[in-house]
Amino acid sequence: MSATCDTAAEKITSYLGFSCHHANPVITLRNPADLANWTLPVLEVTIIAGAIWALVHALRRYRAGDPTNLALWFGSLVFLATIEPPLYFPEWFGLQNAVGLVFAHNVFTVQFMYDRLPLYIVAFYPALSQLAYEIVRSLGVFARRGAAAGAVCVALVYQVFYEIFDQLGPQLKWWAWNFDNPANHPFLASVPLSSMWAFATVSSGTLAYAAVKLVGTPTANGRAPHGWPLLWRTLVVGVVAALSNVIGSIPTNLFGGKHPNVTAQAIVLTVELTAVWAVAAAILVQEWRRQHHEPGPDHDKTAFVLGYPIVYLAVLGGLWLVALPDFISTVHGTTTSGTPIGNAPYTLLCFATAISSVAAVRSNQRRDRRASPVGSRHSAAGTTMDKDA
């Protein structure tokens, strides 16, 4: 076995339909028509386009005086660079016994790092983190409730959009989890509960909180940070999010070890996820209702928050419909193609919550148009924001 393709990696990549041996250490380009199935390039285009759109939106917010979105965009890449390599190559970091190989991505059109990191995954972090942040910001949560409450809401919104994707991926062979790794248990259908908690909830909320506190808050001179102060704060944002991923796993790790108590871990993770759902949903509903009567100072809406979530949900919804026949005909949680399926009730709940959050933003936007003349709106920091195109 090579240093980049141990027994576990060889088994998973072979299942996905490629070999992890002799992979290019830097970058590999493939014909989209030669991928495992046609859903892979569709997913790539959707996510990469979202990341580009998010960057354009972040730059416009930055020029208007708010660098928070820019810190989120690049901070999420710092998080990616910090957290992903140990998951792909645990032996490089001495984690082969403590963590082991968690999962492996399938090969897409553009692939980095010995075929382990698809370009769309690089794009996924800034696209989804900004999508969730903008929905929560547009509902006025950060302006009215502060960074902590806003971060909890971002954690929920990020999770519902993420799980729509996460619960579908294994069935369509976008990636494969290592079911032999005890660190992945317990599962919700084909998705580890630990991933739903640490990656889809804790890290996203912490990323938003750190960005708002370190970058969204004016410096001592009363201005938003830029230049070197913005750079080092952005680096810290990403590192703090990565640390939160580790810290957030401590409660379940207390029941881990060589002989983990999977039942206890499932209970802890369920309680944690339920608490985030209960608190964040209550805040979001209250703020949506309040804006119907008392628009907040952060009620500006842009094309990114009004458009990209709809594009994302439409594409993922279409892919779910394509996968539905095989999903329905599964036996013991496995399709006739031998791929595991996600959890239908939880996915439907995530779809309903994601659609509701988008509808709430759009309904407030329509009310704002009726209540105010066409023109610029103001951000929480009091700066005039450009309309996104």
Describe this structure in words.
With 389 residues, the protein is mainly alpha-helical. Helix content is 60%, strand content 6%. It has 12 helices and 9 strands. The chain has helices at 7-16, 39-63, 68-88, 119-138, 141-145, 147-166, 193-216, 228-247, 250-253, 262-293, 303-328, 344-371, and strands at residues 27-29, 103-105, 110-112, 117-118, 175-177, 187-188, 191-192, 377-378, 384-385. The chain has a 3-stranded antiparallel sheet. Helix 4 packs across helix 6 and helix 6 packs antiparallel against helix 7. It starts with 6 loop residues before the first helix and ends with a strand.
Write the SSE topology.
Blueprint: H1 7-16, E1 27-29, H2 39-63, H3 68-88, E2 103-105, E3 110-112, E4 117-118, H4 119-138, H5 141-145, H6 147-166, E5 175-177, E6 187-188, E7 191-192, H7 193-216, H8 228-247, H9 250-253, H10 262-293, H11 303-328, H12 344-371, E8 377-378, E9 384-385
Antiparallel strand pairs: 1-3, 2-5, 3-4, 6-7, 8-9
Helix pairs in contact: 2-3, 2-4, 2-11, 3-4, 3-7, 3-8, 4-6, 4-11, 6-7, 6-10, 6-12, 7-8, 7-10, 10-12, 11-12
Descriptive key words:
389 residues; mainly alpha; two-stranded antiparallel sheet; 12 helices; 60% helix; 6% strand
Describe what is shown at a glance.
The chain is mainly α and 389 residues long.
